[in-house]
Amino acid sequence: MKRFFQHLYDARVWIISQFILTAFFIFLAWLAYPETFTVLILVMVLMSGLLLLVPIGYLMRKEKVVQKAFRIFLAEPELENEQYLARFVSKSNSKLIQQLGETLREKEDRLTQQNLEVSDYETYIEEWVHEIKKPLSLLTLILDNRSDEMSALVRQRTTHARNEIQNDVEKILYFSRLRTVHRDYLFERVALRAVFEEAIAENASLIAESDLTISIEGNDISVTSDRRSLLFILAQLIHNSAKYAGKGAHLSVRIEEKEAIIVTFHDNGPGISARDLPFIFDKGFTGGRAKATGMGLYLAQRIATDLNIQLVAETEEGLRMSLVIPK
């Protein structure tokens, strides 16, 4: 019924014209045949109604066919579907349909080409990650078995370089996981202090290289989360302070329980400008720092969102990062 009234509204000019014409003929019939005026009025009104309803019914039926043809054409803008749709429209509109089909097919070909390029790129990255693990494993083997043949400084620098490469590889793996629909999270009870100490141990060479000191306050509270992903987030926050707070900076970590579990990271570095703060978790944002990639905090934020954790940044006598974990 709604479509019927819509068609009436669309044909309002034609309907008004027909009404005026019918009224004019009724007036002529009244002048010429006053004795049969009533019968003539009924006939004229009936014919006007038929002339109104039949075309609208035909247009409604045709509209269904055109809409179906349009949906098929938009879903698959092939030449055959374009020609099928052109049968139901005027010649002037068929030229527009032809231009639309050419544009859609061109964009579809371009999109297919881009998807192939992205697929090739992802395949290359996956192969690169697989290949880079071989020299990393060899480097780890040398550090485990030949570290006594190195000086303390060489061993520290080599371990730091190895860990930096591992961290970059880890970021690539997590970034690729974000593109998948299913992510293999394993939720379990996790002791926050123990996970943080593990993150410190895994990044000991970076901490030593940047001369960063870390202190932990608060009880060892347990939460339900994915241990591996939580460890990655904590490692990225340590990396951020170690790299950008400056040599000899201090990072204080506080674990407290309120309405939620809150883990606060606060370093005494230069912080970040209020202008840049809203963009700190954006992909590729570096804040003008030449050695930054802008991926660590972006990935930390994305993974935190997946784990139902809120990651908040504030600049207050340094940089303050807070993990808000629901109980």
Automatic annotation (TrEMBL):
Question: InterPro entries, per this entry?
Answer: BphY/WalK/GraS-like, HATPase_C_sf, HATPase_dom, His_kinase_dom
Pull one GO CC term from this UniProt entry.
plasma membrane
Localization, UniProt: Cell membrane
Give the EC number(s) under which this enzyme is classified. 2.7.13.3
* Annotated keywords: Cell membrane, Kinase, Membrane, Transferase, Transmembrane, Transmembrane helix, Two-component regulatory system
Out of the domains of life, which is the source?
A: Bacteria
Q: Which GO terms describe its molecular function?
A: phosphoprotein phosphatase activity; phosphorelay sensor kinase activity
Q: Topology versus the membrane, per the UniProt entry?
A: Multi-pass membrane protein
* Residue stretches spanning the membrane: 12-33, 39-60
SUPFAM superfamilies associated with the record: ATPase domain of HSP90 chaperone/DNA topoisomerase II/histidine kinase (SSF55874)
Query: Which residues are in the Histidine kinase domain?
Result: 127-327
Broad EC category: transferase
Describe the reaction catalysed, as an equation. ATP + protein L-histidine = ADP + protein N-phospho-L-histidine
User: Main subcellular localization, coarse class?
Assistant: membrane
- Record-level GO BP terms: cellular response to phosphate starvation
- Protein name per its UniProtKB record: histidine kinase
According to its UniProt entry, this protein's organism is Jeotgalibaca porci
